[in-house]
Amino acid sequence: MLRYGLVRLGQGVATLAAIAVVTFALMHAVPGGPFEARGGDRASAGLVEAQRAYYGIDAPVPAQFGRWASHVVRGDLGPSFARPGRTVAAVIGDGLLPSTVVALYAFALAVGIGVPLGVVAAARAGGRGDAAILGVTTVLAAVPAFVIAFALLLVGAVWLGWFEVRLGRDVTDLALLAKALPPAVALAAPSTALLARLTRAAMIEALASDYVRTARAKGLGTGAVTLRHALRNALLPVVTVAGPLLATLVTGSIVVELIFGMPGVGAAFVAAILQRDYGVIMGVTLFYAATIVVANAVIDLIVPVLDPRIARP
Amino acid sequence: MSNRFRHGIALVLILGTLVLAGCQSPRDEAKVLRLNLGGEPQTLDPQRAADSTSISVLRSLYASLLRVGPDLSIQPDLAAEVPTVANGGISADGLTYTFRLRAGLTWSDGTPLHASAFVDGARRLFEPANANPYVDFYRVIAAQGANDRVAQALAEGRTGADLEALQRTAARDLEVSAPDDRTVVYRLSRRSPAFLSLVTLSPMYPVRADLIAQHGDRWTDAGRLVTNGPFTLATWDHGRQIVLARNARYHGGVVPLDGVRLDMIEDAAIALLAYQKGELDVVTLGPAELVQVRGTQSLRDQFQSYAQLSTQALYFNAADPLFRDARVRRALSLALDRPGYAEVLREGAVLPATAWLPPGMPGHDRAAGTDAAQPAVERAQALLRDAGHEGGRGVEVQLLVADASSARTTAQWLKEQWERALGVRVTLVVRERAAYFADRVGGKFQVLVGGWSADYADPENWLPQFRSGSALNPGRFSDAAYDRLIDQATVELDQSRRIATYQQAQRVLIEQAAIAPLAYGRRNILVQPWVRNLVTSPMESEVPGDLYLDRASIAQR
Question: Considering CB atoms only, which of A33, A41, A117 is closest to B438?
Fold first, then answer.
């Protein structure tokens, strides 16, 4: 177990390092730098050069990477170029809470609604309930999150006045957790549909399997058969995708954040790319990559619990 | 059993609906003006701020020695009077400016505001770490010659440790002083009649050096920032909202508003939605929103449209083999249907422009460039022929444009106009903002869609940038007659002669087609009926009325 943990940690660090190198190189290959973006038409070529020299971004890219990496391993993500006086850590820290709250909320919705829907559909496979669920999930899976977000905004905020057009930071206020519902719903919709369809397929397979027939033959009730025997086995593929799904929700909220005016990590990321705020681009990339690495590692630990045939790592 | 699942799902849905229905938009305080800032300001540090969003907020937080009135006149603010040669505020040689502060000035925390706060502010601007592009506006302030040497080094492209040392020397030796608590003295290295305008701008705001020393880079956080303007910073919810509260110690008397709420809604369509829901008191309309509002009867009486001191123009690269020839530049300018552009393409949101200095700006010249007021296609074709490009032969133009929907539309229109009227071939180079400016400052373009907006209402802010060797001359335009006129005007103390000289220079600029003016800017806004005294100005930054929010008030909503 310890060995496994060390190996996974090593793999994780190697993955992050590779992503960092590639991102750093690509970021510097894109034309235009932070001081052209910041100075706009008021900055002269000389002044832009002077500022690049002052902040050391006129050095060769490998040398810059070395300096950046040596600071990062010491926990220093450096200054933000686009927000003078603020650090990269502060800029990302501002967005962390709203993004995480909405992602977890969306994850809970996707699992809490998607899995039961899939079970219900499978239990009535071929029936009208199944057809209805299949129809709805097909639509939800096909419609991009931003369309759902705009629809929610138009109906909920503009027509019905249930919530403000701009949700903003209130999404982190626990008393107002309701406020996080619209962005979470928009974010969760495609994932809910995905989980429902995945669960349905796995359940139909499980319900048709020999051990379910055996269980039924033993005289067990429908509930026990569906829940204890079929669902447990059917959950395996669902749990396997749940890890990457959670990571996708954390990293995938960019569009939803922009539409609902949430100052999350995704919104900061987009701004940083446009402003060539190198430190923030690297910081958010590492955060996203780390989220995916950790989520996958956790799932690898959970899967053997559900299916002892899969070797415990 | 599936009943249990059904119940579970129903419960989740019902709970969701209940919590959704339970949240109503919070009731705002009655006297808080709710505006849209359009985005997160980069900083609220006046010496570091360079973007229009930050500057818009700073205007309500700080007061300077002088301020500009709605009629663009320079008025005293913290200074007791505007310095003149007659009242002794400006020395006879025009090099020393002395400001006498009003008595009893304080910061928002009650600390007396001394003249040294202006010295500290000016000095900080010149620190290389503050990386403010506006610093080059202020190189006219003497620093034992160091500022001239920095300007020289920047113009020659010399960077590195030497330049950095020189920049630090300029900051240290800056000739701004406070002989006593109520007197600020600025020494200039040459006569600069526009210096009074420079004093009104955010880089010259006073600062609290003690708080910067105490809090470091976090001194602008809400709860720490101490200001001297009509408002103070109450909260700063990064990426979402800034709330300003009335400064009870404001020297200009009691401010009618309790506060100002500045939302950061980037999308103009969403801002209009928020306005229509009553969540915003004022909203700026984008091109699409303008059309929508025109078609909505109920919004028409809330509509206001007013001029901004800004000009959209094409910049030609005079260092380019093709555009070195002024006839080619002129031809491209003359071929354009400017009224069609303003009225049809831009839906009347702008005015057609034939000159560089916009209406309302001292030196605006209605007669300048009028030969381009209507498309002069035959003359344009003749010019191209004279330049050896009969029927557009051999003319392949790359048009650089920043990636914004309105700029792209403009570029498409230009391409269509030029290809149809002149037979030239036009390729669009659409670049993201950062890359666009990299190409622009690097002179890597043939023609670009750009423009300028006034930092202060003086031709000095508009015309000297096209002088040969100017650091802000992306097209490398160079004309000996133009340079002479600019050099005369820059130091001319007689105002009418100065303006007349700038007007002559502008004629040269248009005739030589360093640029091709396209449109004068306007601002189109909606104002809720309960907003009173929203004093707009032709020199607004991001927020409508941002120069005079100390006067605005709100009647019963």
Answer: A33
Distance from CA of B13 to the nearest CA of A (A): 9
Q: Is residue A193 part of a domain?
A: yes
- State which residue of chain A sits closest to B26, comparing Cα positions: A164
Q: In A, which residues are within 8 Å of B135 by CB distance?
A: 47
Task: Specify the 3-state DSSP secondary structure of B447.
Answer: strand
Count of structural domains within chain A: 2
Question: A113 in contact with B at a CB cutoff of 8 Å?
Answer: yes
| Residue A200 included in any domain | yes
The ipTM (two decimal places) reads 0.81
CATH at residue A108: 1.10.3720.10
- Indicate if A23 and A127 belong to the same structural domain: no
Are A61 and A140 within one domain?
Answer: no
Q: What is the pLDDT of residue B326?
A: 96
Please give, one letter per residue, the 3-state secondary structure of chain A.
CHHHHHHHHHHHHHHHHHHHHHHHHHHHHCCCCHHHHHHHHHCCHHHHHHHHHHCCCCCCHHHHHHHHHHHHCCCCCCECCCCCCCEHHHHHHHHHHHHHHHHHHHHHHHHHHHHHHHHHHHHCCCCHHHHHHHHHHHHHHHCCHHHHHHHHHHHHHHHCCCCCCCCHHHHHCHHHHHHHHHHHHHHHHHHHHHHHHHHHHHHHHHHCCHHHHHHHHCCCCHHHHHHHHHHHHHHHHHHHHHHHHHHHHHHCCHHHHHHHCCCCHHHHHHHHHHHCCHHHHHHHHHHHHHHHHHHHHHHHHHHHHHCCCCCCC
Tens of pLDDT, residue by residue over B78-96, are: 999 999 999 999 999 999 9
Residue B538: strand, helix, or coil: coil
Contacts of A164 in chain B (CB under 8 A): 25, 274, 277, 279
Burial class (CB within 10 angstroms; exposed 0-12, middle 13-18, buried 19+) of B106: middle
Give the minimum alpha-carbon distance from A285 to chain B in angstroms, rounded to a whole number: 19
Sign, Cα dihedral of B246, B249, B253, B254: positive
User: Which residues in B lie closer than 8 A to residue A116 (C-beta atoms)?
Assistant: 5, 8-9
Q: Are residues A32 and A117 in the same domain?
A: no
A103: containing domain:
90-306
pLDDT 10s digits, A199-242? 999 988 888 888 888 888 888 877 777 777 788 888 888 888 88
- On whether the CB atoms of residues B192 and B137 are closer than 8 A, the answer is no
Over residues A47-91, the pLDDT tens digits come to 888 888 888 898 999 999 999 999 999 999 998 998 887 899 999
- pLDDT band at residue A312 under the 50/70/90 scheme: low
pLDDT at A170: 54
* Residue of chain A nearest B241, judged by CA positions: A168
Set of chain B residues whose Cβ sits within 8 Å of the Cβ of A176: 23
Report the mean per-residue pLDDT for chain A: 85
Q: What's the one-letter identity of residue B50?
A: A
Q: Compare CB distances from B279 to A117, A164, A169 and report the shortest one's residue.
A: A164
Residues A98 and A242 occupy one common structural domain: yes
Contact list in B for residue A48 (CB cut-off 8 A) is 441
CA-based nearest residue in chain B for residue A49: B159
Question: Residue A85 and residue B153: Cβ atoms within 8 Å?
Answer: no
Q: Please tell me whether residues A54 and A142 are part of one structural domain.
A: no
Do A226 and A132 share a structural domain?
yes
- With a cut of 70, which residues of chain B have pLDDT below it? 1-29
Task: Write down the pLDDT at residue A176.
Answer: 53
Please answer yes or no on whether B434 and A275 come within 8 Å at the CB atom: yes
What are the tens digits of pLDDT across the range A253-272?
888 888 887 788 988 898 89
Q: Measured between CB atoms, which of B8, B155, B440 is closest to A116?
A: B8
A55, part of any domain: yes
User: Do A143 and A45 have their domain in common?
Assistant: no
